[in-house]
């Protein structure tokens, strides 16, 4: 059984009601649900939420909400793994056994069906615990600068002040869209950012965290530009 779990709690602080706030004409969560459906690789697509309004929107766009997430898994400090583990354990209690489980974020409007399928392929082909999308940093992280308490600057790695950018190892970061994993890995709480995971490379222009009002505005600009380019 291939299961998609879309975590969407109701208590977003920085962008209130972020998961169902309108993004380019649809509730934000609708984009993730529709792409999961488009991928046509899931036996079930569920939304894990503690919020009745989010549950209603999720059902409207084609997901199921088989349970209401408990309050102890719905605070600001609960991570992704416990939420997915809870969903898997719920299905097992119902006599069903998910094998491959994809945690798909509700605020991932740039995710594409073909990327979800590439993630599943990477998970199975490389026999790993997890597979998830990454993208490269725009600038070398070895030349990163911090602002000190005195209002001055200093390098994190000053030994690379004279190193040419092209001579520095390229670094990547989590694209923040989805994580495929075997149910056993989720249940055991295996670390995602580790050697047991395989990367799915994405171009930088299709990656945007959405945590602030500024992020939201930038994401809408990017999304509309991509839709215009693709003739949508």
UniProtKB/TrEMBL annotation:
Which source organism does the UniProt entry give? Answer: Microbulbifer rhizosphaerae
PANTHER family named in the record: HAD SUPERFAMILY MEMBERS CMAS AND KDSC (PTHR21485), N-ACYLNEURAMINATE CYTIDYLYLTRANSFERASE-RELATED (PTHR21485:SF6)
Is Endoplasmic reticulum given among the entry's keywords?
A: no
Q: Which UniProt keywords apply?
A: Nucleotidyltransferase, Transferase
What EC identifiers does the entry list?
Answer: 2.7.7.43
SUPFAM superfamilies noted in UniProt: Nucleotide-diphospho-sugar transferases
Q: Is Ribonucleoprotein one of the keywords UniProt gives this record?
A: no
InterPro entries tied to this protein: CMP-NeuNAc_synthase, Cytidylyl_trans, Nucleotide-diphossugar_trans, PseF
**NCBIfam families reported in the protein's UniProt record:** PseF
Instruction: Tell me the protein's name.
Output: N-acylneuraminate cytidylyltransferase
Show the Pfam families listed in the entry: CTP_transf_3
């Amino acid at each position: 059984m291939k299961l998609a779990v879309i975590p969407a709690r109701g208590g977003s602080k920085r962008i209130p009601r972020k998961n169902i706030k309108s993004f380019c004409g649809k509730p934000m969560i609708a984009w993730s649900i529709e792409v999961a459906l488009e991928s046509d690789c899931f036996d079930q697509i569920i939304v894990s939420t503690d919020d009745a309004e989010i549950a209603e929107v999720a059902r409207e766009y084609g997901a199921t909400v088989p349970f209401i997430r408990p309050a102890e898994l719905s605070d600001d400090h609960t991570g992704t793994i416990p939420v997915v583990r809870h969903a898997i354990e719920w299905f097992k209690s119902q006599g069903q056994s998910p094998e491959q489980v994809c945690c798909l974020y509700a605020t991932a409007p740039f995710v594409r069906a073909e990327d979800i399928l590439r993630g599943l392929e990477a998970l199975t082909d490389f026999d790993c615990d997890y597979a998830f999308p990454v993208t490269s940093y725009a600038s070398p992280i070895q030349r990163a600068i911090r602002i000190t308490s005195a209002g001055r600057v200093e390098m994190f790695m000053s030994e690379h002040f004279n190193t040419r950018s092209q001579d520095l190892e390229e670094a990547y970061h989590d694209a923040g869209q989805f994580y495929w994993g075997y149910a056993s890995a989720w249940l055991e709480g295996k670390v995602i950012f580790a050697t047991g995971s395989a990367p799915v490379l994405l171009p930088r222009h299709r990656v945007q965290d959405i945590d602030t009002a500024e992020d939201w505005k930038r994401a809408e600009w990017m999304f509309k530009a991509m839709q215009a380019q693709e003739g949508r």
